[in-house]
Amino acid sequence: MQEQFSSFIKAWDFFDASKKTIIAVSGGMDSVLLCHLFKAEGLVFAIAHCNFKLRGDASDQDEVFVGNLAKQLDVPFFSTAFDTERIAKEEKQSIQLVARDLRYDWLENVREKKEYDFVATAHHANDSIETVLFNFTKGCGLRGLHGILPLNGNLIRPLLFASKKDISDFVQKEKITFREDVSNASDKYSRNHIRHNVIPALEKINPSFDQTASQTIKRLQEAEALYDWALAKIKKEILEQKDNELFIDKNKLLSFPAPISVLYEIIAPFGFNTSQATQIKEGLEHHSGACFYANDYRLLVDRNHLIISPKAAEVDTEVLVQEDDLFVGTDVEEFYISVSNNVPDHFPKDTTIAFLDFNQLRFPLKLRRWQEGDSFCPLGMAGKKQKLKDFFINNKLSILEKERVWVLESAGEICWIAGYRVDERFKVNPNTRQCYMISIQSA
């Protein structure tokens, strides 16, 4: 066992004898063995224990036992206690989940405060198998089938090489004392049910189930590594970042195998789920304009792309512009204004700048977001009216681009579609004496 332990941790690129580790110790067989293996290996470690106050005197006796173990091994000891049942009721969550979160949060705080490199738990090969079976039963993707990983941030699992039988045999042989947790014999929790009922049933089919399952998990981990490698290449081909928006090429996405899986891997970090990935993919050819929402992001199905952007913050939707204003601003755009008695000989093609006949304007002007039913007389159409909706279609504006459009209004008439077109009625002409110039910039 000691040789296997030594070989296992020496195979890690991230671990060496100089690292300091806090071992989470319940007092049970697995965690007590891990302490003895660390001690025999000459590694620097401390022992940490959480008393969840769930088993009356037995919980307090566990804490005393673990404290004595730390004295016996001559290592630092850290402990804490939680009123777990009360906290679970207040948070309306399961005791198991609350205890887990309390434990890991506290261990990480101790690690940081005491300047240790890692927190170690005594998860072994059978725990990893149980995790895979649990995830498979509940429903998961490939990542749910890789079992418990040796390294997760600052958390390490140095006993994953050993089966529960290996551990039990070694502990009995070496006469290592430990505390029994009677709750482990109960089928109250899902994992215990898997441990006591499901795995024994599988072992009747395959007496070497723990070995073959561990080998399968290793192959799944290798498959996941290959999956991640392929996914990175796909992302480079189909993704484009523009400012704070992510564009996903729809046609390229559909050209790859398993587009739902690819899409889910892209959108999951933004808070979207597998059901949404399926709905989005199924509607790609028919639902341009559809929107899907996560907590902080929105996904828009546009003509050629899926566009992920942060949910829009509340912004000003209407701003009055006075006659003497030289600047007005919103949360997302800024408008700069000047008035001149000199009429330009020619006008730049830059549509972010508008030149208007000052005498045709009635102040205060109004800057606002465009609305359904808006219409104007686009410059160059001889005064013919056009609905903004049709103007946007003709100019192939995406839904996101349309959402950002501001219009400048004078006495109820639109005189400029900001960034796109001046109204024919307000254009600078040979009779213009004063030129009103306004430009738009991102804030």
What is the count of DSSP helices, taking H or I runs of 4+ residues? Answer: 14
Termini separation? 64 Å
Across the major sheet, the strand order is: 3-2-1-4-6-5
Q: What's the CATH first level of the largest domain?
A: Alpha Beta
The CATH topology of the largest domain is Rossmann fold
The averaged pLDDT comes out at: 91
**CATH architecture tag of the largest domain:** 3-Layer(aba) Sandwich
- Give the overall shape: elongated
- Report the strand count: 22
Characterize the biggest β-sheet.
6 strands, mixed
Q: Hey, roughly how much beta strand do the residues contain?
A: 15-25%
Residue runs with pLDDT of under 50 for 5 or more positions = none
**What fraction, in percent, of the residue positions are helical?**
25-40%
Write the CATH homologous superfamily of the largest domain.
HUPs
Radius of gyration: 33 Å
Structural class assignment: alpha+beta
**Tally of distinct domains:** 3
Descriptive keywords:
elongated, five-stranded antiparallel beta sheet, 3 domains, Phenylalanyl-tRNA Synthetase, Chain B, domain 3, 443 residues, alpha+beta
Give a brief rundown of this model.
The protein has about 450 residues and is an alpha+beta fold.
